Amino acid sequence: MVKYFREDTRFVFKGRRDNNEWIKGVIASESDNVKLRLGDINIIFCSDEYLLELNKKYLSHDYYTDIITFDNCSNQIISGDLFISIDRVRENSKMYSSSFDEELHRVIVHGLLHLLGYKDKTKAQSKVMREKESFYLNLRY
Questions:
Q1: What's the domain count of the chain?
Q2: Which of 107, 131, 129, 134 is nearest to 118 (CA)?
Q3: Which of 14, 30, 78, 81 is 20 to 30 A from residue 44's alpha carbon, by CA?
Q4: What is the pLDDT of residues 25-61, one digit of tens each?
Q5: Virtual CA dihedral for 104, 78, 49, 18, nearest 10 degrees?
């Protein structure tokens, strides 16, 4: 089940039902030989400052980011918390000349891909992650 929350922002996410179906589709598509199942995914929309404090507290990083993913997966059940800075998403959409919705969905699928086991620490990993993001965004739009 996907649940939506907000912390330190007035942002209201619309289109939850479509988003939930899209998330289920991504998980199903990534289920090659193993049957992955949707567990509990919490998407928490927040401010830059809220996410910065989480970044400092849990990751010892003192910088702004658009998303922090906390992985709670076990066995083949995909679960976790996606903390998303609405402020960063807005800034990124301007910087990359994309719509706010497209950038928001890119960040959501980025966090979901982390839950599915994808990493982005190296150039090669980042390339795969970006390709996957684009692939799943194209399925959404």
A1: 1
A2: 129
A3: 30
A4: 999 999 876 789 999 999 999 999 999 999 999 999 9
A5: 30
